[in-house]
Design brief:
By secondary structure, the protein is mostly beta strands. It has a single domain, classed as Calycin beta-barrel core domain (Lipocalin). The chain has one helix at 2-19; strands spanning 34-43, 46-56, 62-68, 71-74, 76-81, 84-91, 94-103, 106-113, 116-124. It has a nine-stranded antiparallel β-sheet, with no helix packed on it. Strand 7 and strand 8 (106-113) form a beta hairpin. The longest helix is centred in the N-terminal third of the chain and has 18 residues, at 2-19. The radius of gyration is 23 Å and the shape is elongated.
Length: 127
Amino acid sequence: MKTKYIILIVLFTGLMLSCGSTKTAINPDDKFLGDWSLIAQSTPQGDVPITMTITKNKVGGFAGSLSSMMGDFAMRNLILKAGVISCDFDVQGAIFEFKGVFSNDEFKGETLGPGQSYITNGKRKVD
């Protein structure tokens, strides 16, 4: 009889522990969250400093924005996977594509607009 109770307690405890788990998988790309200082090189306005901010949205996906002397722009259709980022953003009705690769605290990328392409490189912003 004791054996039945012990088995029942062990099964119940195992069930409770497995159902009550709140562990979530950590996305390796989370290490790229935060602010990045970039420079879009050789634009018609010269070399343009940009702050790229990458965050997580309410459902755990990546979100972001780009801020420069041209304004603040939401990164739409943002995909960040295996250290590679791509998105698009709208500047006064013109759609630009943004893409690049993270390597530790460095970023190498490109901004593509209508008939234009600008090397856009930078580093993680240090507070």
